[in-house]
């Protein structure tokens, strides 16, 4: 929350009063008309893949009708809505959501002027003072300046209202820290938020050196073996170790000892000497 900033309150009575004071008179059909004679009749676009957002759009249209503003809800797919918005911004209003992390002020770049045609801005917001302050914020070398600039940028958005924030949804992420290690979860938003992409680089199966060795050697082992504890009393670990290739620590039953190698070499030498001696005995005299 921005310090000393009060959220706008929902008040249909006050909305009617503001429109009356501004000269927007109620027409015979229940739709207000601007001082220049233009009816306050708009299309509210919403993405049809999100039922809760379609329902929210219909609720908003109902509220607007109570203050003399007509809103026609048009639910379309995301591609259609994008073609309506960019690059000409021909829409009246559109409703959709953003998924981002509060750890860094990444969403603030959506309102830059250079994001209107080929970027991510769907409001067409253009404020040179905002752009200059944003540039100052992202080049700051200390957190105090970053926070100060970020708060001031949000103050501009609060006053100009390119967006009207309806609600904030808290997401839940479930992950198994016993099966995998390397979660980069020390930032607000969790290990899979958009600023924590290190998780997808560092994540790896969690295993001790012993269980890891068994997994590599026993390529046909099941998932239950690969995530098994390193305890030797485990039936799965016992089973896989008997069928796998011998490890470096295998005893004499699975490895060739040094005395045995020496004995083999001596035996070979003796055989060679015997063969040579026999051949000399059979050589004819001259």
UniProtKB/TrEMBL annotation:
UniProt-listed Pfam families? SBP_bac_5 (PF00496)
Give the source's domain of life in one word. Answer: Archaea
Domain Solute-binding protein family residue range list:
7-103
Which parts of the sequence are annotated with region: Disordered? 209-250
Q: Which SUPFAM superfamilies match?
A: Periplasmic binding protein-like II
The record's section on InterPro entries has: SBP_5, SBP_5_dom
TM ranges are 260-280
What UniProt keywords apply to this chain's record, in alphabetical order? Membrane, Signal, Transmembrane, Transmembrane helix, Transport
Record's Gene3D superfamilies?
A: Dipeptide-binding Protein, Domain 3
The record's section on PANTHER family has: OLIGOPEPTIDE-BINDING PROTEIN APPA, PERIPLASMIC BINDING COMPONENT OF ABC TRANSPORTER
Q: What is this protein called?
A: Solute-binding protein family 5 domain-containing protein
């Amino acid at each position: 929350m921005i310090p000393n900033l009060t959220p706008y309150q929902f008040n249909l009575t006050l909305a009617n009063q503001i429109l009356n004071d501004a000269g927007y008179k109620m027409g015979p059909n229940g739709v207000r008309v601007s001082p220049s004679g233009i009816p306050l009749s708009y299309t509210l676009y919403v993405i049809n893949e999100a039922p809760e957002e379609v329902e929210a759009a219909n609720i908003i249209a109902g509220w607007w009708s109570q203050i003399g503003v007509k809103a026609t809800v048009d639910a379309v797919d995301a591609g259609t809505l994008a073609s309506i918005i960019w690059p000409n911004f021909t829409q009246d209003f559109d409703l959709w959501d953003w998924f981002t992390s509060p750890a860094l002020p990444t969403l603030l770049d959506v309102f830059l002027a250079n994001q209107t045609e080929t970027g991510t801005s769907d409001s067409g917001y253009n404020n040179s003072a905002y752009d200059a302050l944003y540039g100052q914020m992202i080049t700051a070398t200390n957190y105090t300046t970053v926070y100060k600039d970020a708060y001031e940028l949000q103050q501009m958005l609060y006053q100009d209202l390119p967006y009207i924030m309806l609600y904030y949804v808290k997401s839940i992420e479930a992950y198994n820290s016993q099966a995998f290690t390397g979660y980069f979860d020390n930032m607000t938003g969790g290990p899979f938020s958009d600023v924590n992409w290190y998780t997808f680089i560092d994540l790896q199966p969690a295993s001790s050196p012993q269980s890891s060795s068994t997994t590599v050697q026993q390529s046909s082992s099941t998932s239950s073996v690969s995530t098994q504890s390193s305890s030797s009393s485990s039936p799965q670990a016992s089973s896989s170790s008997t069928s796998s290739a011998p490890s470096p620590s295998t005893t004499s039953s699975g490895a060739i000892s040094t005395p045995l190698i020496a004995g083999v070499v001596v035996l070979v030498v003796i055989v060679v000497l015997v063969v040579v001696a026999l051949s000399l005995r059979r050589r004819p005299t001259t």
